[in-house]
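Z., the sequence and structure:
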Amino acid sequence: MLVRTPVLFLRLPTVYLIYRPIRSFALLAAVFTVPGLTLGVRYAALAAMGEGRGHVQSVIACAALLVGGIFMAAIGILAYLLGINRRLPEEVRYLEHARLHDARRSGSPDAREQLYLSMVRVSPSGVDRSPPLMT
């Protein structure tokens, strides 16, 4: 039991990243962006006072942190969209299974035939099980 505990602590953040990507990557983006903005404001204040020449490192660090924050936000958006793309086929599969179960429960041949025809494409020459061509 004690050996599995570290594995659990490694899996929890992974599961959280999979199911809550916006929150996770927004937090990571904030971790990068807030210090970047702080360094940028600090450099702007120093430049306004005329002491900006010796603080080029602040500008470089500011730019690197802001770019990191933007990348984290972009990865969060992509992870969110991938999550939607993962959930949609699962929902469609569930709905098809529910329709098939209802058709089997009703026992009427018409319901089964309608279900079959809704799941396959019917062409004038017969039944075509291949996916429709993209035009």
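The helical segments are 4-19, 21-48, 56-106, 109-119. The CA atoms of residues 3 and 9 lie 11 Å apart.

Let me know what you think.
H.
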